[in-house]
Amino acid sequence: DLCRKFHCKRGKVCQADKQGKPSCICQDPAACPSTKDYERVCGTDNKTYDGTCQLFGIKCQLEGTKMGWQLHLDYMGACKYIPHCTDYEVDQFPLRMRDWLKNILMQYYERDQDTSGFLTEKQRSKIKKIYLNEKRLVSGEHPVELLLHDFEKNYHMYVYPVHWQFYQLDQHPADRSLTHSELAPLRASLVPMEHCITRFFQECDGDQDKLITLKEWCHCFGIKE
């Protein structure tokens, strides 16, 4: 089966022609496997789709059109009302996001001590310094003033988590810039809980070229050059 090792991007499936040559064709949305309610997703057209298979299959069929170019995965779950993000909220967003990223790495480090494999040796070495030295805030909701004070006091503890998240996302290809698709795994899971994340990433793209470079990413999170 030549299609077994033939890679197609999301929304397309491999099909061999009469000569057995594999190529990618659009996934038929009607042929997508049935999904549960919790597997539904919301598109940027504010329509609910029965899973990512259906969404990307339809996007593929619209390829070459304005609608196809604009259609992306917005967030996980059925479409719902997302409150407007105010200027004040988007200004405070990096404080919560930095703290969240740092705490994720702390949890990975704790888990890695019992079951190795979550982190590489190099990552473990870097995170250990943060883990042992920081006066860690207990996970949960914190006042803006406390988060800001912790960032100013323990700035060096936030640098690696911000860099780490960028390189976790920068995979297809790893070119030191993030596309909408590369951002999707982070954005799509957080939109229902963090209604400012879409505006935050839009404003991170300072030159509006649809790419967020490492420099733009760090600037958004308050990391110095």
Q: Could you list some keywords that capture this structure?
A:
225 residues, mainly alpha, Wheat Germ Agglutinin (Isolectin 2), domain 1, Recoverin, domain 1, 2 domains, two-stranded antiparallel sheet, 9 helices, 7 strands, globular
CATH architecture label name of the largest domain: Orthogonal Bundle
Strand content: 5-15%
Rg result: 20 Å
State the fourth-level CATH superfamily of the largest domain: EF-hand
Q: Give the total of beta strands.
A: 7
Q: What pattern of helices and strands is seen along the backbone? A: EEEEHHEHHHHEHHEH
Tally of structural domains: 2
Note the quaternary state here: single chain
* Integer average pLDDT: 88
What can be said about the biggest beta sheet?
3 strands, antiparallel
| Distance between the first and last residues' Cα | 50 Å
Helix content: 40-55%
Main location: secreted
Keywords: Calcium, Disulfide bond, Extracellular matrix, Glycoprotein, Metal-binding, Secreted, Signal
Organism: Odontophorus gujanensis (marbled wood quail)
GO molecular function, one term: collagen binding
In short:
The chain is mainly alpha-helical. The protein has helices at 52-61, 66-70, 87-114, 121-133, 144-153, 156-169, 180-190, 197-204, 214-220, and strands at 12-16, 22-26, 41-43, 48-49, 73-76, 177-178, 212-213. The chain is built from 9 helices and 7 strands.
Describe the protein in words:
With 225 residues, this protein is mainly α. The protein has two domains: 12-76, 2-Layer Sandwich (Wheat Germ Agglutinin (Isolectin 2), domain 1), CATH 3.30.60.30; 87-221, Orthogonal Bundle (Recoverin, domain 1), CATH 1.10.238. Helices cover 47% and strands 10% of the residues. The chain contains nine helices and seven strands. The strands form three sheets. A three-stranded antiparallel sheet has the order 4-3-5. Strands 1-2 form a two-stranded antiparallel ribbon. Helix 3 (87-114) packs across helix 4, helix 3 (87-114) crosses helix 5 and helix 3 crosses helix 6 (156-169). The radius of gyration is 20 Å and the shape is globular. Residues 192-225 form the EF-hand domain. Residues 25-81 form the Kazal-like domain.
